[in-house]
């Protein structure tokens, strides 16, 4: 996929949920670009997590070629600052979690953030929020298959960060996940937390 910067869709991305970015003064949208991974990722990428580095450098391209997921690299002034990996999902919710007009459908199409990471050199500059914004942009601009929700699994210590960016805990999915782990004798204390965002809210904010 070609560089998306400079296109009308990218300018729409710039307008989506701008409240996410708290450190935008440290960089300009004119310096941002996003490219879908179609060749090996930059070998120097290091986000501080061995598992996330390994996914990008060894597995992301294969997942793309096998049509399992799509990984997008974010660039700031020509340097790769991070990546986000997306795949289709569906979310089953409790009646009280559903927007009023979709209460009749218990399972709703969603786009999931499978992986997301920022290189250590660029952390603390609001670029993680820019990666979230880009995932919102992709979900909002999907035309062939509509996505109502953007979903992800957050490590417990990052739940607050995602809540400040518009995500809420997916009660039913998390409850079922805890029940499965407990039945298997596991400890749910460090279990990832299922979260979602209603993309219709993001669309209406543009």
Describe the protein in words.
The chain is α+β, with helices and mostly antiparallel strands. It has one domain (8-205): 3-Layer(aba) Sandwich (Aminopeptidase), CATH 3.40.630.30. 31% of the residues lie in helices and 25% in strands. The protein has six helices and seven strands, in the order αβαβββαβαβαβα. It has helices at residues 8-15, 50-65, 127-141, 159-163, 171-183, 199-205, and strands at residues 32-36, 70-76, 79-92, 107-118, 149-154, 168-169, 193-198. The chain has a seven-stranded mixed sheet with strand order 1-2-3-4-5-7-6, sandwiched between helices. α1 (8-15) crosses α3. The chain is globular and about 45 Å long. Mean pLDDT is 84; it is low at 1-9 and 15-22.
Strand order of the largest sheet: 1-2-3-4-5-7-6
The helix-strand sequence is HEHEEEHEHEHEH
Largest sheet: 7 strands, mixed
Count of extended strands? 7
Q: What portion of residues is helical? A: 25-40%
Name the beta content range.
25-35%
Distance linking N and C termini? 24 Å
CATH architecture descriptor text: 3-Layer(aba) Sandwich
Number of domains: 1
Structural class: alpha+beta
Global Rg: 17 Å
Average of pLDDT: 84
Number of separate helices: 6
CATH level 1 name: Alpha Beta
Q: Which fold name corresponds to the CATH topology?
A: Aminopeptidase
Query: At the fourth CATH level, what is the homologous superfamily?
Result: Gcn5-related N-acetyltransferase (GNAT)
The gross shape turns out to be globular
Low-confidence stretches: 1-9, 15-22
Quick overview of this protein structure:
31% of the residues lie in helices and 25% in strands. It has helices at 8-15, 50-65, 127-141, 159-163, 171-183, 199-205, and strands at residues 32-36, 70-76, 79-92, 107-118, 149-154, 168-169, 193-198. The two termini are 24 Å apart.
């Amino acid at each position: 996929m070609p560089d998306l910067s400079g296109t009308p869709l990218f300018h729409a991305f710039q307008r989506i949920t701008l409240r996410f970015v708290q450190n935008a003064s440290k960089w300009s949208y004119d310096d941002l670009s996003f490219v879908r991974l179609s060749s090996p990722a930059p070998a120097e990428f290091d986000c501080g997590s061995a598992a996330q580095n390994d996914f990008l450098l060894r597995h992301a391209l294969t997942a793309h070629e096998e049509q399992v997921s799509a990984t997008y690299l974010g660039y700031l002034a020509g340097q790769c600052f991070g990546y986000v990996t997306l795949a289709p999902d569906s979310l089953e919710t409790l009646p009280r979690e559903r927007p009023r007009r979709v209460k009749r459908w218990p399972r709703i199409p969603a786009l999931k953030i499978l992986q997301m990471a920022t290189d250590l050199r660029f952390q603390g500059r609001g670029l993680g929020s820019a990666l979230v914004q880009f995932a919102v942009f992709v979900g909002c601009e999907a035309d062939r298959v509509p996505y109502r929700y953007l979903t992800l699994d957050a490590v417990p210590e990052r739940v607050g960060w995602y809540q400040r960016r518009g995500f809420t805990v997916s009660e039913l999915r998390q409850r079922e996940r805890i029940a499965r782990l407990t039945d298997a004798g596991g400890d749910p204390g460090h279990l990832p937390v299922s979260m979602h965002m209603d993309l219709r809210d993001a669309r209406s904010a543009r």
